[in-house]
Amino acid sequence: MGEGRGVRIFGISDLHLGGAEVEERGKFGKGWGDHRATIEENWRRVVGADDLVLMPGDLSSARTHREVQADLAWLERLPGCKVFSAGNHDRWFNRVEAIRPLLRRSQRAVGGDAIGCKGVVVCGTRGAELDAGVGERDKELAALDRALELAVGLRAGDMPLYVLWHYPPFDAHGEAGPVVGRLEAAGVTGCVYGHVHRLGDWSAMAQGVIRGVRYACVAADAVGFCPIRVG
């Protein structure tokens, strides 16, 4: 992927902070028992203060704006500028307009819209599973269409354009979902996603450049609880 004027771009999602789901997460494999400490250690080792970290969903198991405060405070102490969107477990993340006043200095959010950060355009929305009902799917695709339109308007020259979409854009057989054509038509640089946790599922997910767009599955346990370089 191209870089935003020299900035390094990382991705990680599905942190599932808050503690309520750690025991349940353990069914997906080792590492969840003290995953917050592992993430922090790895994050500080690889991410610098001037870097950008893209986080497509499932940041916290918190249910309300009040409950998520501790997790946002923890995230604020880590290096880099963080941009996140909602996932299916982010019950605290309602409208992005309501979320932004909660955010700390190094945090940004997108939800059916787009922002510029460190010379990079970032847009996205929660997304929908490939087998989602028509109503849910169409709602999220419409949100993505708005986000991409705004992103293209913000983009100048060869600025990188990244999309946050929580769910895999391709199925396990490599068949493209309805989001893929939209990304290609908009000239998106890359798409980061998560949601899948089991090794067998993750290994079947789309990775690398496909028809001009680079895809990266960045679910925390799939990437060893360490932000990975995506740009």
Q: Quick one: biggest sheet?
A: 6 strands, mixed
Name the helicity range.
25-40%
Series of H and E elements: EHHEHEHEEEHEHEHEEE
Which structural class matches the secondary elements?
alpha/beta
Strand order in the largest sheet? 5-6-7-8-10-9
Distance between the termini: 5 Å
Mean pLDDT: 90
Binned strand content: 15-25%
Q: Count the DSSP helices.
A: 7
Rg (C-alpha, Å)? 16 Å
Tally of strands: 11
Q: Are there runs of 5+ residues with pLDDT below 50, and where? A: none
Q: Give the CA-based shape.
A: globular
Tell me about this structure:
The protein has 231 residues and is α/β, with parallel strands linked by helices. Helix content is 27%, strand content 20%. It has seven helices and eleven strands. It has helices spanning 22-25, 35-46, 69-76, 96-99, 134-154, 178-185, 199-203; strands at 9-11, 52-56, 81-85, 107-109, 113-117, 120-125, 161-165, 190-193, 208-210, 213-217, 228-229. The strands form two sheets. It has a six-stranded mixed beta sheet with strand order 5-6-7-8-10-9. Helix 5 packs parallel to helix 6. The longest helix is centred in the middle third of the chain and has 21 residues, at 134-154. The chain is globular.
